[in-house]
Write a sequence for this structure.
């Protein structure tokens, strides 16, 4: 392809996605630090008790949640062993098949089965940032749309790398000409920040796009591995008298002893089957803590049905999460993530500026021989060269 | 444009792709090492991740200091 074609690809792929990418970069900035912000804004903590205080039965914990919100059902329970070892988070809804977004949180002390808090999860600054970042309040279509914009950004990055060459042939790496026109200054910033963030931005863009497919991936897993594991249960009536939760979690722990339970999906929810509690277990290294392993426990008998490693496409989704969030290397990594995010914002902003203030070709003096950095000139030269070949 | 700027930012010959992309490829490689290493483990792996991902940022600071 000629430089001119690449330039066209770069211009249009960028123009279409820039506004959305700016939105994603700006809302993503506070989201990098959501854990820290949560701590500062005073999330509930379990009261201190002597170390080694045993946990209450999970059945009592479930009972406490059901009593707190009568008429509702529990869909999920989850734990954050590292951050809040003594807390059980319960997610409730008006019905098992209520919309996925519906979630009423109840926070329970795992040792005493006492309700500690019922935080509102659908309001506040961070909630708005998260919604704007994931689906712009437009549900699944909004999410998939942002995923497509992410792919378009990758096209913009690739074409940008190709164009970097004709622009930089006469310039040293890192050239920043600030004494000339505002346009040249921003062109140099665009080229420098663009080229140094290429790998990071491609990784964050691609993993972000993969994350937008989470519901698709989940249904795929449901139809594939989950359907296989629960085949003997097909056609059976739904569970009416569920087994004891405590007995079920013990079964799951015994089945995968080297991992910790991080989530249990109740029968009939998106992450389970109508006849099972599905426990998701995680390991304790940066990678295995992301690669959750399911253990299906019969919700009537509390016996293990099956436990298999996730298929490759679910593993890809799981590993895309840390690589998008930047939450897998402590606070220093988050700070670097934030700086690179700001670089990306400057690349987007300067790109927009360069397009809005594009020079009129005729106004560029032809006797001005030293404008190699100007796009019109670089383009013209490249075109002439190609024409000569 | 003045002579000083010319010496700082211009090359004396038309560069090949290899020359233009030499530093960007190194920085990209450093970024990949950094993105992967923090996934592989904690402590020393995290430190390796921080230092390698710092490389592109440090290069920008260096370019800013010697701007023309």
């Amino acid at each position: 392809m000629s430089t001119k074609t690449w330039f066209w690809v770069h211009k249009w792929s960028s123009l279409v996605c820039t506004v959305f990418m700016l939105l994603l970069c700006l809302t993503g900035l506070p989201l990098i630090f959501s854990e820290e912000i949560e701590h500062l804004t005073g999330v509930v903590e379990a009261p201190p008790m002597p170390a080694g205080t045993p946990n209450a039965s999970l059945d009592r914990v479930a009972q406490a949640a059901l009593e707190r919100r009568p008429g509702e059902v529990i869909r999920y329970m989850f734990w954050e062993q590292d951050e809040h070892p003594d807390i059980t988070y319960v997610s409730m809804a008006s019905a098992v098949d209520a919309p996925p977004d519906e979630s009423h949180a109840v926070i329970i002390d795992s040792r005493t089965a006492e309700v500690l808090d019922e935080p509102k999860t659908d309001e506040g600054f961070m909630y708005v940032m998260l919604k704007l970042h994931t689906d712009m309040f437009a549900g699944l279509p909004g999410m998939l749309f942002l995923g497509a914009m992410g792919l378009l950004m990758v096209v913009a990055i690739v074409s940008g790398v190709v164009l970097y060459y004709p622009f930089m042939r006469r310039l040293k790496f890192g050239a920043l000409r600030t004494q000339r026109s505002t346009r040249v200054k921003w062109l140099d910033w665009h080229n420098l920040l663009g080229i140094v963030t290429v790998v990071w931005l491609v990784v964050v863009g691609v993993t972000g796009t993969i994350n937008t497919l989470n519901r698709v991936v989940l249904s795929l897993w449901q139809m594939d591995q989950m359907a296989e594991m629960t085949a003997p249960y097909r056609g059976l009536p739904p569970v009416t008298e569920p087994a004891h939760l405590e007995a079920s979690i013990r079964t799951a722990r015994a089945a995968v002893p080297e991992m910790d339970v991080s989530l249990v999906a109740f029968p009939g929810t998106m992450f389970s089957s109508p006849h099972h509690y599905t426990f998701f277990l995680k390991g304790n290294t940066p990678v295995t803590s992301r690669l959750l392993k399911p253990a299906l426990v019969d919700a009537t008998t509390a016996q293990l049905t099956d436990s298999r490693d996730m298929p490759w496409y679910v593993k890809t989704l799981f590993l895309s999460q840390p690589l998008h969030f930047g939450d897998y290397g402590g606070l220093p990594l988050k700070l670097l993530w934030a700086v690179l995010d700001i670089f990306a914002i400057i690349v987007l902003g300067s790109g927009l500026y360069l397009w809005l203030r594009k020079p009129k070709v005729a106004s560029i003096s032809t006797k001005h021989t030293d404008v190699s950095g100007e796009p019109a000139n670089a383009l013209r030269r490249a075109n002439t060269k190609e024409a000569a070949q | 444009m003045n002579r000083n700027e010319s010496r700082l930012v211009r090359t004396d010959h038309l560069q090949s792709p290899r020359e233009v992309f030499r530093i960007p490829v190194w920085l990209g490689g450093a970024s990949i090492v950094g993105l992967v290493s923090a996934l592989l483990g904690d402590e020393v792996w995290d430190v390796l991740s921080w230092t390698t991902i710092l490389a592109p940022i440090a290069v920008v600071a260096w370019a800013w200091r010697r701007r023309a």
Remarks:
- The beta strands of chain A are 73-80, 84-93, 104-109, 115-117, 260-265, 276-282, 293-298, 304-307.
- The interface with chain B takes residues 164-165, 168-180, 192-193, 195-200, 203, 285-287, 319, 322-323, 328-330, 332-333, 336, 339-340, 343, 370 of chain A (CB under 8 Å).
- Chain A has twelve helices and eight strands.
- The two ends of chain A are 14 Å apart (CA to CA).
